[in-house]
Amino acid sequence: MQATDLALLIDAAREAGRIAGRYTGPTAERWEKAAGAGPVTEADLAVNEMLEARLPAARPGYGWLSEESEDSPERLERETLFIIDPIDGTRSFAEGSRTWAHSLAIAHRGEVTAAVVYLPQRDLLYAAAKGEGATLNDVPIRVSEVPALDRAEILAAKPNLESKHWRAGTPPNFARAYRPSLAYRLALVAQGRFDGMLTLRPSWEWDIAAGALIITEAGGTCTDRSGAPLRFNTARARLDGVVAGGRAVHDALGAALRPSGPGLPQTPPA
């Protein structure tokens, strides 16, 4: 089923790109969500409307979890579901940047089995099906094999470098870069363009699901900040941060991080 599910996601992602392309980011109508949850534009809603009509109709037995749909506990009763971010990097989209993505995934019993991260403005389509490898525009991709952090370039927002997160009180010596879309950061690591990524804040499943499978199918490792496997379709739909990269980089980052706990202040969204 993974192969046919992946074909379904690829077709839907390309249609999402066509819909989003009808809008000009800076002029698209925009609102701020309640409780500081960030912006949403008319493009996000138009893409979500198409996906919510198209995907469940093609797979009637699958549940639904999307950033732009009202959540329902009914999804927890489904073994398989769609996990969707109609536009990951909405701020980037609204500013007129090209660094935003459609993130589409299918998870079965908590594990992602098919995934697409599509950047229509950059003509980049990352895809993976469980056990079948990862591709960029149909060409196989692999994570980098950098053996040590002091030779690595890591995608991370600045708040992740604060001393409270690291056992030594300071982060290890690595080069830092940043991209606004979490899904794109994960895909770039899968491609080998960067050696690892981390986000230490609680992260929504829809930001992570697709990129997590693409990384692991590209030979990398992707866990939460404590090193535990990622599980999807949880009641809160949130993960305890994400650490990803080739095995050596992932393990070195995990060893350097201070364990999270109830008393640890959380990094603000980035």
TrEMBL record:
<keyword id="KW-0479">Metal-binding</keyword>
<protein>
    <submittedName>
        <fullName>Inositol monophosphatase family protein</fullName>
    </submittedName>
</protein>
<dbReference type="InterPro" id="IPR000760">
    <property type="entry name" value="Inositol_monophosphatase-like"/>
</dbReference>
<dbReference type="InterPro" id="IPR020550">
    <property type="entry name" value="Inositol_monophosphatase_CS"/>
</dbReference>
<dbReference type="Pfam" id="PF00459">
    <property type="entry name" value="Inositol_P"/>
</dbReference>
<comment type="similarity">
    <text>Belongs to the inositol monophosphatase superfamily.</text>
</comment>
<keyword id="KW-0460">Magnesium</keyword>
